[in-house]
Design a protein that fits this description.
2 copies of one chain form a homodimer. Chain A is built from 12 helices and 9 strands. The radius of gyration of chain A is 21 Å and the shape is globular. Chain A has 2 domains: about 5-180, Rossmann fold, CATH 3.40.50.720; about 185-285, 6-phosphogluconate dehydrogenase C-terminal fold (Orthogonal Bundle), CATH 1.10.3660.10. The first copy, chain A, is of the alpha/beta class. In chain A, the strands form 2 sheets. Chain A has a 6-stranded parallel sheet with strand order 3-2-1-4-5-6, sandwiched between helices. In chain A, strands 7-8-9 form a 3-stranded mixed sheet, covered by helices on one side. Helices cover about 50% and strands about 10% of the residues of chain A. The longest helix of chain A is centred in the C-terminal third of the chain and has 29 residues, at about 185-210. At the A-B interface, α7, α8, α9, α10 and α11 of A face α7, α8, α9, α10 and α11 of B.
Chain lengths: ~290, ~290
């Protein structure tokens, strides 16, 4: 009972890129797509990321073997709630959201019971600072890590849903990803540090520069690669990050606070030997580990 | 009286890259090089960034039309002091240091008087997170901005030194740079924001992650482009940045403090509409200006 029909709800950057990647790697079934913004779905269809646009997303989900939820975290939470009563125990829901704990809480009653659909939370560590189907790329996941965070209740998943979960893991590898399994809480903490903190630092730095030097041409011309990289994520859309800020608040807040403290420490030690220790630790993070990011 | 003989004191990444770039653009005179570390000078010679290694840097400087000072800021300050009594009024000293106010203070009595050599402070906005002649690149300056910050006393420069300064500006353009003139104080403030602040933020973030997750393989594997970019400068050498921290302390400190405040503001507003304002300002910095960095 292989996956022959996939519904992608949310055909933005990630949803559409998954569709394109699946096609490139030989998925020959149907991919039905839907997006709150009809233009996104139309672009996804034009790019052949989906084979057909769903007239009604609920019907499309009910008729699919696997339902992939894209879009911001709040929209994933909403779909989990809406779809549960419409799906059967042999169907699998998965997602590409950046926060996982909140999703497992939502799924706890509604999924992964013998008579309920399965839910396998997933999170590809790939993206761009610009969203939308028009930026989709079938090679986006080549070499990336795709995290899976089985929910605490995932043992209750039906055998048919489990088979689909295993097959979905195979597809994720086929589109170029290395799979890493984490528990949802550890996922949210690690992602706060390696993904959410960099985003909010880049946003704060970009906002600060815009505030302080709104029309300074010199500042803009002399900024080199360092500034470009440190502010690239300043272009990221609020709509996506609001949901992450709301659903991973504690971990994000802790990482921001730690960085504030660290910057203050560095500032107070610009002229002391402590500065050397900071550079040595930083050098070790970048150079001292064979798995350096 | 064109520039026929150039001395490069400090043949690391930037010094050697300048030598290679000059050659590529048709400079046919002699480039004599010297470095505190003989291996750097040997590499520069092998790369043909210099034509000959100086036996004695003071003699080499005394015999050159133009002396380019590379290396960390403190070493430039020291050369300015040591060379002044050895040079004639028709000779020009220039540099590639990242801080300018301290250099002009040092040069005030010693340069730019009718009987003293000329000094034109310069700063190419190009570099890498790894130093050394072995990383030199004759194309490093293509498309970069080269800042010049004439000292307050530069009107006192001899006519011959001024001619060399004009010729040096032409060479800087030939190797691919757009020239921007700033006064030294404004230079140090702008560079604190667009170059020094990004460096210290990247160092602090890298050091914090190394401290908190010293052997966490998962953290290292899931970090994607965002983490890679935000911590790239964590690899930068302390030796270079110590001098910048010491000579641009006030501006760097002010920019760090402002960012700490901004991060705290963002942290306190993860769940309020203020977060939208931060993203909108950040978006404007990255997307709203045709000269976006």
């Amino acid at each position: 009972m292989p996956i022959e029909r996939i519904a992608i709800l949310g055909t933005g950057l990630i949803g559409s890129s998954v569709g394109m990647a699946l096609r490139q790697q030989g998925f020959t079934g149907t991919i039905v797509g839907w997006d709150r913004d009809p233009a996104q779905a139309a672009t996804a269809l034009r790019l052949e990321a989906i084979t057909v646009i769903a007239e009604d997303p609920h019907t499309a989900a009910a008729q699919s073997d696997l339902i992939l939820l894209g879009g911001p975290v709040f929209s994933i939470l909403e779909w989990l709630e809406q779809l549960a009563p419409l799906l059967k125990a042999n169907q699998l829901v998965t997602d590409v959201g950046s926060v996982k704990n909140a999703l497992c809480s939502q799924a706890n009653r509604l999924y992964n019971h013998p008579d309920k659909p399965g839910f396998l939370p997933g999170h590809p560590m790939a993206g761009k600072e610009v969203g939308g189907a028009s930026n989709a790329d079938g090679d986006l996941f080549q070499g990336a890590v795709w995290l899976f965070t089985e929910c605490p209740n995932s043992n209750g998943m039906s055998a048919e849903a489990r088979t689909k979960a295993d097959e979905w893991r195979t597809w994720v590898q086929k589109i170029g990803c290395r799979i890493l399994d984490l528990d949802p809480e550890r996922h949210d903490v690690l992602c706060a540090w390696v993904s959410h903190l960099p985003q909010f630092v880049s946003t704060a730095l970009s906002a600060l520069l815009e505030d302080k030097f709104p029309d300074d041409e010199a500042l803009r011309s002399i900024g080199g690669r360092a500034l470009r990289e440190m502010t690239r994520l300043g272009a990221s859309p609020y709509s996506m990050w609001r949901d992450i800020a709301h659903t991973n608040t504690e971990a994000v807040s802790a990482s921001l606070f730690a960085l504030e403290q660290r910057l203050a420490h560095l500032r107070e030690n610009l002229k002391t030997p402590e500065l050397r220790d900071e550079f040595e630790l930083a050098n070790r993070f970048r150079l001292g580990n064979p798995h350096k990011p």
